[in-house]
Amino acid sequence: MPTLLHLDSSAAPGRSNTRAIGRTFADTWRAASSDHVVVYRDLHATPPPHLADATLHFAARLRPADAHPPAEAEATQSELLDELLGADVLLVGAPLYNYSVPSSLKAWIDHIHVPGVTAPFDEPSQPLAGRPAVVVTSQGGTYTADSPTAGWDHGVPVLELILGQALGMSVDVITTSLALAESVPALASEIPRSRRELAAAHQRAAELAQALGGA
């Protein structure tokens, strides 16, 4: 059965743009076919632990002879890897926090980016190569080339590097900006643009879900 792995990492469950856009994608994916499955993990509600031992960053065969990472840490990593490897499509809700990804999402990345397992090292290990990954990101301000904060987005580039280059996945990014326009008086003039971008992001999410779901 075609399986979507849906990750959320926003710390604002009730008013999160990335969560709302992700739901649009997941709902459209489910509606595309009765055999479509969604595996959901809320990284904020149940955050993965920090990597317990540096040797977990590598495949077991590449670890030093004296490496003994905790068994429960290996079990957690195996669970996260199995979820990812079992998915036909990956959907990641990744709001921009302090110009980067939320710490819960970074912890997930640390568990699944494993040279020799999901990424090449001593051999061309890239079992996820070509599989679709959809990143949904929401920004409080804007980071376009004409903005004073251009280049400050260090969240999407990390995900494109890890998922796209290291894991070989085919990455699509859905971005909506100026999420703070509704609550910060200095950004009030940007409310129309913010709402337009949000509506366009929902539409893009539905279109991608239909395309990837074969509808």
Q: Ends: how far apart?
A: 15 Å
Helix proportion range: 25-40%
CATH-derived architecture: 3-Layer(aba) Sandwich
Per DSSP, what share of the residues sits in E-state strands of 2 or more residues? 5-15%
Query: Could you state the CATH homologous superfamily?
Result: Flavodoxin domain
According to DSSP, the number of beta strands is 5
Strand/helix succession = EHEHEHEHEH
Rg over alpha carbons:
18 Å
Named CATH topology: Rossmann fold
How much is the average pLDDT? 94
Give the structural class: alpha/beta
Q: Give the overall form.
A: globular
Strand order of the largest sheet: 2-1-3-4-5
Total number of distinct structural domains: 1
Largest β sheet strand count, sense and barrel closure: 5 strands, parallel
Tell me what you see in this structure.
- The model has no long low-confidence stretch (mean pLDDT 94).
- The chain is globular.
- Helix 3 (103-112) links the parallel strand 3 (89-93) and strand 4.
- Helix 1 (17-32) runs parallel beside helix 5.
- The chain has a single domain, classed as Rossmann fold, CATH 3.40.50.
- It is an alpha/beta fold.
- The protein is 34% helix and 14% strand.
- It has five helices and five strands.
